[in-house]
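Researcher: Can you fold this with pyridoxal-5'-phosphate in place?
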Amino acid sequence: MTEQPSPRSRFGTRAVHAGVTPEPVTGAIMTPIFQTSTYVQPAVGEPRGGTYDYGRTANPTREALEANIAELESGTRAVAFASGLAAIEAIVKRLSAGDHVVSEQNTYGGTARLFDKVFARLGIDFTYVDSGDTEAVRAALRPNTRLVHVETPTNPMMRICDIRAVAAVAHDAGALLSVDNTFASPYNQRPLELGADLSVHSATKYINGHSDVIHGIVAVRDEALAEELLFLRMSTGAVPGPMDCWLTLRGVKTLHVRMRQHNANGLAVARYLEAHPRVDRVYYPGLPGHPQHELAARQMDGFTGMVSVDVGTLERARSLTEHCRVFALAESLGGVESLISVPALMTHASVPEERRAAMGITPGLVRLSVGIEDEADLLEDLERVLG
Ligand SMILES: *Cc1c(COP(=O)(O)O)cnc(C)c1O
């Protein structure tokens, strides 16, 4: 395909083609890595294309990735950042001292740390709620609330927020809704279609999918909001490098194929663990026993490869995670290879113990990022260590 996919193209076709056109000089089918800091200008103050003056401001490899993700998220624009946290940081940097944010309490640990240890010091107030309870979000709103930030499914408890309902509540109060869509990926969930204003990703995870870059991206529908984020990125500098943009663009072309396998393996592992006598609880929105299964089925097209289980004690969590052979003991998620971790001691170690307990992150909680290996090998690995 040498033209852009039509708006009616399906997700997989858009994943492969959106934003990508043959390079005009040679016809190279792959977007070049424009590894350059500056551009030669034909006349003083007249950069080519009106924008190509400096690499922080404009880069064609980055723009191809942004155009691709904008389409996959059903947005009009996307803005790429050096990391997921840099993307979330930019969203909050739109605000000023004295503004208020309502945030999901059970966010990625680094997000809570950014809010509490950096932005709170700069005069932005945060209220933490269970955003799975729309009324709790409504009750937390104040006249100066400018942003509601949620994550769904949450990490690692896999709670679901009703995006459509929370968007309406936020908009009634004059606030924007940003959704951290990292856990779902745009293949499984498109928050902008449900009324959210910003869909933000740690593209480090499913979007890139190969555990080889740190990368963030925000998709929006509103032009003015996109321009604001571009201005913030240009002014504060958290740009991703051209090589990382290229790797993420290469990764996203197989997003639909990978996610089908993640979804299938995630469900198989969740079902296996649910039936296992040594497992106390399984948290997976694809299981009918999940308290928000119906809501999840309504707003998601698949339930991902993320599964959390409670095995009772830290000793058992340790022994399970340290003795797997296919599942590697590591933080992060969303790559083709399966990972396993203990959130209380790893990803969420920086969250105060009291808050961890309130979220349900017990010492015996184990989080699995189920990869795209063969299902039988994954189940055998778990069987061997669980006994
Ligand atoms: C990893 C992660 C982040 C942070 O992204 P980085 O790319 O590591 O900066 C934010 N939100 C969620 C849900 C994550 O899993």
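Model: Folded with pyridoxal-5'-phosphate in place. Residues 25 and 147 are 45 Å apart (CA to CA).
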